[in-house]
Amino acid sequence: MSLNKKQIGTIIFILIIVMVSLAIIKTIPKMFMNEDTAQISMTEEKAEPQMIKNVEKILGEFPLDERHNIEAILNKSVELINMPTSTPNEMAALSPDTEYIPSDSFALSKLNGLLNMDHTFFSDDQVIEYASELDALNIAVADQIQCAE
C-alpha cells in the first residue's frame, strides 16, 4: 500500500493537531491554579524524595546497633507528644521497648515533623541539627532516668 503526498500530509496534520490538543489539555489545570497552589504542588513533587533521603541521613548519623532505637523513638513520638508529662514508670508501661522520653521535649516535637513530612520540607542543615538534638535528647533522657532512680 503506497501513500501519496496528500495522505502523508493529512496524517502529519492530524498528528500535529493531536499533539497540540494534548499540550493544551495538560496546561488547562495550571491556568486555573493560583501561583501559591502551583508552587506548593511543584514543591511537594520535588520534596518527597528529598525527605526520604533526609530521614535516611538522620538514621545514617547513628551506629547500626542504635538505629532500631532511633526508629522506635520516631515511631512513638506522636504518642509521646500528645501525652501529658509522665513519670518514667508511666512511660515504661506505655512502651517498655524504648527509653523514657519527656513528652514536652522541643526536639521530640520537631522529630514529629519528620513523621508528618508530607507538608514539611527539611533542608540538609535542619536534618543534621535535628539529629544532633536527638543525640542531646538521649543524653538528657539518660540523666533523667538516673535522677529518677
Structure explained in plain terms:
This protein has 149 residues and is mainly alpha-helical. It folds into two domains: 1-32; 43-148, no CATH class. The chain has six helices and no strands. Helix 3 (64-82) crosses helix 5. The longest helix is centred in the N-terminal third of the chain and has 28 residues, at 5-32. The protein is rod-shaped. Residues 80-86 and 100-104 have low confidence and may be disordered.
Helix content: over 70%
Give the SSE string.
HHHHHH
- Outline the biggest β-sheet: none
Number of strands: 0
Work out the count of structural domains: 2
> Radius of gyration over alpha carbons?
26 Å
Enumerate how many helices there are, as a single number: 6
Strand content: under 5%
Global structural class? mainly alpha
- What's the end-to-end separation, in Å? 92 Å
Arithmetic mean of pLDDT: 62
Poorly predicted spans: 80-86, 100-104
Overall body shape: rod-shaped
